[in-house]
Amino acid sequence: MTAQWNLCIAVAGFSLSLLMVPLLGSWSDVAGRRPILLLSNVGLALQAVVYLFVMYLKLPMGYFLVGRVLCGLSGDYNVLLAACFSYVADISDRRSRTFRVAILEACLGISGMLSGIIGGEWKSARGVIEPFWLVLACNLASAAYVYWCLGETVLPDPSARLFSFRHYKSIWHLLSTGGLSSNERGRFHRRRLWLYMLCFFIVVTVHIGSTDLYVLYELSSPLCWGPTLIGIGSAAQHLAYITSLLGLKLMQPCLVESWMVLVGLVSNISGLLIFSFANTTAVMFTGYAVSLLHMTMTPVFRSKLSQLADPSQQGALFASVGFVKAVCFLVASGVSNSLYAATLHFMNGFTFLCSAILLLIPGGIIGSVPAVFRAEKRSLK
User: Fold this and answer.
1) Statement: residue 78 has pLDDT above 90
2) Second label for 231, Cα 20 to 30 Å away, from 32, 36, 165, 247?
3) Is 1-149+189-378 a CATH 1.20.1250.20 domain?
């Protein structure tokens, strides 16, 4: 029953995200970033309020869907991320954007690590309800900061309407023309945009799918980890956000961004290969150590995509990225869990092996794109 309700709640949020992420993200290009940030935080706060009511009053499980729908209508987590990344793109130049985006990615890892530690200990000591008060307080504090302290980076258009098909058309224009007129240079940008989107999709799908399986893999034979080792393993996963940020900082003066992606891919592939054959605790932690730079890829992809879009299209661009990430969650959860169950009888690490092989696709694209497009650019001149 828990699995069924988790699926229903996830599908409810995902379905609304497919509609609202492109709409709200593109709207932020004309209405400003602050309204989107405020709306998404309020929506997350309303979801926490509904969850608290359901738990305190012991209401039927169906009422959880009310909170999920309210959150989905306000854009949910993906719109919040799209607005944050758009805001960073607005206030940064091309040279510093990758590192600033990486700082945001690192914040996700640090917050995930802290929430796991705080939530787990709090739940063990006081039950499952009280931690949701912290969730509510954080969302309200974030909304208050946006309303009173955060400056706007976009000149708002008072006549901009939220519910307009124009916002979807602006995203289609960005993806179909590369944000430029339909000429040779526009086609050049469009191809790069789609190739980087494909790389981002594969990398994020592999990351989400692998993360879903780590605990199952560690609980099963021959590792048979207990809660302590699983907690340390989870901390090691989130530590990669910080080490990848430091790695980007060290690599920036001497490597171009494409090489940074390849370093991250090598780190990720090597770690997944070790995980696929890990039969002892030492080997498993060796995989975590080798993977400490695998989070260098997504900030570079976000930065590359941002640089291909016009400054007036950053909201539409990151809304598209948020849409792709929502699809990644759906694909990764279904495929990785199904593949793990189907191959468990002959190799419990087979899914990690397949993920490592899949990452060769973005590696080939990134390795070939710079040379191909330099040649194409010279021909255009």
Assistant:
1) no
2) 247
3) yes
